[in-house]
Amino acid sequence: MLLLDRESGAWQDSWFNQLPELLREGDVLVLNDSRVIPARLFGMRPGSTGRVEVLLTEQLSDWEWRALTRPARRMAVGQELAFITPDVRLQATVVDAGEFGERLLRFRPVDDFFARLELLGHVPLPPYIRRQDQPLDRERYQTVFARQRGSVAAPTAGLHFTPEVLERIRARGVVITYLTLHVGLGTFQPVRVPEVSEIRLHTERYSLPAKTAEEVNRARLQGRRIVAAGTTTVRTLEHCAQIGRMEPHSGTTDIFLSPGSRLNVVGALLTNFHLPQSTLLMLVSAFAGKEKTLAAYRHAVEAGYRFFSYGDCMFIA
């Protein structure tokens, strides 16, 4: 774990198991408890022998989902899709096309959609993991506190935590609380436009529970620090502050934070290392400053820190 002082820009090499000692009594540590679903489906178009691939990215209603599809050019509105094994079946229809190239799928109602998805679906591992998903991935690609199902990727800063580390953090007098942001395309969307002002993210669904809203509001009033685990947690908290709703509610956000954005809630951040030209790196730069962030990243590259979802992390305070 790389420690970065966002005031001075100084960095220090450390280990994640030192995090409890870096937190203060009275801090509020906010974690994203979203759970990854087996969102990758392989099926067929009735009447065709070709296989289709679907990645469910956002649930819109009981039976409607946004999804990425392959081959996308064959997925016209009205196209029927079937996902079938000898024991279970799901069927869907393409009902619309989105502005980012995704499709809107409407599934036929079934007795327990998620139970069938568990049997038919595959864990959507990051593309740099060049192997098929395995049964063990259903637990390894989850945080130990994952509860609310709906993400297509793990909120990766949370993967570092173990029950033992969380217990040590509580013993320090730190309040641990949770919110939910279901990780979808907005979190990992690459930058495809020349100007930052032109960037528009996909929406992602979130929920701010009553306990978390209460703890965050109390800490802010008392001048205590809010520590966010992961960029998804930052985006949720800062979105709620931006719209003036630091109260229990659910909604969607497409908030984009970049250098120059003002962060009103988060006082410290635990985050993994992100790719160049990514909106996630821009968010970290918004929090710590562009030059300080990039200088720390240069050190991380030279020191051999691991990037990506299963990589190392930074604690910025």
Describe the structure.
This protein has about 325 residues and is an alpha/beta fold. About 40% of the residues are buried. It has a 9-stranded mixed sheet with strand order 2-1-17-16-14-3-12-13-15. It has a 6-stranded antiparallel sheet with strand order 5-6-7-10-9-8, covered by helices on one side. Helix 8 packs across helix 9 (about 290-305). The longest helix has 14 residues, at about 290-305. The mean pLDDT is about 90. The protein has helices at about 20, 115-120, 135-140, 165-170, 185-190, 210-220, 230-240, 280-290, 290-305, and strands spanning about 1-5, 10-15, 30, 35, 40-45, 50-60, 65-70, 80-85, 90-95, 105, 150, 175-180, 205-210, 225-230, 250-255, 270, 315. It contains 9 helices and 17 strands.
Salient structural properties:
six-stranded antiparallel β-sheet, single chain, 28% strand, alpha/beta, nine-stranded mixed β-sheet, 9 helices, globular, 317 residues, 17 strands
Task: Please describe the biggest sheet, giving its number of strands, its sense, and whether it closes into a barrel.
Answer: 9 strands, mixed
Shape: globular
Main sheet: strand order: 2-1-17-16-14-3-12-13-15
Work out the helix count: 9
Radius of gyration in whole Å, from Cα? 20 Å
First-last Cα distance: 13 Å
Q: Count all strands and give the number.
A: 17
Percent range for β-strand residues = 25-35%
Helix content: 10-25%
The succession of helices and strands, N to C, reads EEHEEEEEEEEHHEHEHEHEHEEHHE
Ranges with pLDDT <50 over ≥5 residues? Answer: none
Indicate the mean pLDDT: 92
Structural class: alpha/beta
